Amino acid sequence: MIEPVVLALTVGFLGWAYQALKPPPPKVCGSPDGPPATSPRVKLSDGRYLAYREFGVRKEEAKYKIIIIHGFDSSKDLSLPIAQELVDELKIYFLFFDRAGYGDSDPYPSRSVKSEAYDIQELADMLQIGSKFYVIGISMGAYPVWSCLKYIRHRLLGASLVVPFVNYWWPRIPVDLLRESLQRLPISDQRTFKVAHYIPWLLHWWMTQKWFTALSIMAGNMGIFSPKDLETIKKLSESPSVDQEKVRQQGEHESLYRDLLASYANWEFDPIDLTNPFPNNEGSVHIWQGYEDRIIPYKVNRYIAEKLPWIHYHEVLDYGHLLIFERDLCEAVLKALLLG
Fold first, then answer.
1. Apex CA 162: angle with CA 115 and CA 107, to 5°?
2. How many beta carbons lie within 10 A of that of residue 261, not counting itself?
3. pTM check: above 0.90
């Protein structure tokens, strides 16, 4: 009698585990069960669609063409505080896009650090913005910039990594430095990043279980923001972002969780291995880091810049993770990249 009971319990547990570990199917834009695609999109060579938004002067008239790469839980609809006068004066064309699985861009189960660079390259080609362009990546949107510097460096005129993502398992960074930086984060975030790195098949369950906080930023923990960040959040709340509700519309797994899986996986390269893409000073690479950033500890990015002296490192005192949303600093990021 005991054996059938044990067998039934085992089968039941395995069935529950399978359902708990298995991500739900994505709600693809334009599918019968998915939301409508309401943004301009291009079709990539593999059949996926990427959604985009253009801003600034017309690309045919532009002197500078910049692709902006959004971060975690964001989209092409992020608004940067850039004076229209500066955009017109410098003749800047901006191309924002939803990374795979975000907003109106199709999910990509094989999303990786490498695929992000080639998505950017193909988007630029489909929209005919020219053989070379600038890239600016914000927070987690900076890991695609590292990828661009590795895989499509020949397409770049310059690059800026603003409060850039850190992978705590990059092999060429001192282990003690990575450990110290990781331990500065909330315990919940440390656990989640370790799950994404060591046991990625468990991440969907980990992010959806109700016993522990999985990620502080998704739980609304305001303690991860510096005093300057809190001031910025207050200002931003007075004019909420357009279409913020669309960011996760195809599923949190396809947008947020795949971002964590791609970024915290074992990379094919280490930033320290990169060589100067502009040996003749025909372009430049910049890192902008807030000294008071509580989301991205500054010491790792400072170390990378020390090891790669061709990177222009800007450490901004008194500012935290949201420095790009301060007009003076946002415009400083642009001027340093475009004007040197």
1. 30
2. 20
3. yes
